[in-house]
Amino acid sequence: MSGWVVVAGLGPGAEDLVTPEVRAALAQATDIVGYIPYVARIAPREGLTLHASDNRVELERAHHALQMAAQGKRVVIVSSGDPGVFAMASALFERLEEIPEFAHIDIRILPGITAMLAAAARVGAPLGHDFCAINLSDNLKPFDLVEHRLRHGARGDFAMAFYNPRSKSRPHQFARVLEVLREECEPTRLIVFARAVSTPEEMVTVVTLDQATPEMADMRTVVIVGNSTTRRVGAWVYTPRSAPDGGATS
Amino acid sequence: MSGWVVVAGLGPGAEDLVTPEVRAALAQATDIVGYIPYVARIAPREGLTLHASDNRVELERAHHALQMAAQGKRVVIVSSGDPGVFAMASALFERLEEIPEFAHIDIRILPGITAMLAAAARVGAPLGHDFCAINLSDNLKPFDLVEHRLRHGARGDFAMAFYNPRSKSRPHQFARVLEVLREECEPTRLIVFARAVSTPEEMVTVVTLDQATPEMADMRTVVIVGNSTTRRVGAWVYTPRSAPDGGATS
Predict the structure, then answer these.
(1) What is the mean pLDDT of residues B140-160?
(2) Of the ranges A101-115, B35-49, B160-174, which one carries the lowest mean pLDDT score?
(3) Which residue ranges form the domains of chain B, and what is each CATH number?
(4) pLDDT at A245 over 70
(5) What's chain B's Rg over C-alpha atoms?
(6) Which residues of A touch B14 (CB under 8 A)?
């Protein structure tokens, strides 16, 4: 029996946003590996072992998955959203690079509905034109780089989606992010705070930049900042497909 | 009977990448509206009318959908990938804004697996760090703005995904895009050309920037440009989660 590792995206929370491709991999698995709340989404069954681990142990988790696959197990590493967007896929390849004897292992990455697209769909189409996605956490990069990318995103007039905007261990950085946005964008710029989209705890708020406060975000929130043309129609927020001439000003 | 409009993402092509949420909406629909190749993916059944239309008539298509919903029909507008990423959701809201009598219509946007995330999963995790998505078509925006955003994307050291890189009507622009990238990035920068991912015509090529030619892309291709740290491990391409200090250089 030859083992494998699948890194699967479970989507933002609702079960009807899990793709059939991911369901099929879960049905074939002998072992599920992942962060506690994601593994909690998998129904126990005979022949399936659940290995839940804490946050910030991504490399150890990847190693464990590769090791079990080398022993013939069929392992699914579960990620929230899409596994390639600020999630487990990169951690797996980092570990694969470090341990040459894992090189032969059969690996597949299965995409999922990432949080920013679920959030965008809920409010309309704020990412309907060019956009960027930035992880605001400085766990693995200097905060200077976050600020640098924020400014380029704003000056390029991209809509922007922010992952991990705020956590208990870094309560002040999102306030700084709002300061940078106020330097770069007009006060009426639309901002969407989308918390836990597609779960029972879903909460979505749309404000203008001058109304935004750091407390509007927590670690389960995706923040979407519109571009200069993003507007409301009724209760919806959308970015038109067309950009006027002269949009390239800085 | 009250009508509705759903804008649904069918994902990049494979049927097992269509979410159950989208399947359920398709099962309830009386009418399907969309671009010819996307409507062709919907199985005919009794009680369901298929309305396929040509490219570049997005606003007329949106109007038709809203009009039918106003008459009590249950209409699904089908998009490839995710409907909010360079697809039909924005067109729907543009039309909604123009025609106030459609304001009361029940609308839902259902996310899908967008092409760049399916392509990224196929090659590894090239979008595993901050990234941006740019529609290279200048049908609805000046090409200057494309170039402006390219430079900000590169200077922010974002990985970048390009939609609609090249078509018969604008064969020269992608050559210009490669020129701009060569001005902004090192020659060994990794580029992924991912054509028709998850379909029988899938073809994925990974090259370095100095090897890239305009002919590597066509209208069914998504192009992913790594950031300065994107690397290979075996046959995979991935972007590490961490960025070194000093990444913010321009």
Answers:
(1) 95
(2) B160-174
(3) 4-113 (3.40.1010.10), 116-238 (3.30.950.10)
(4) no
(5) 20
(6) 21
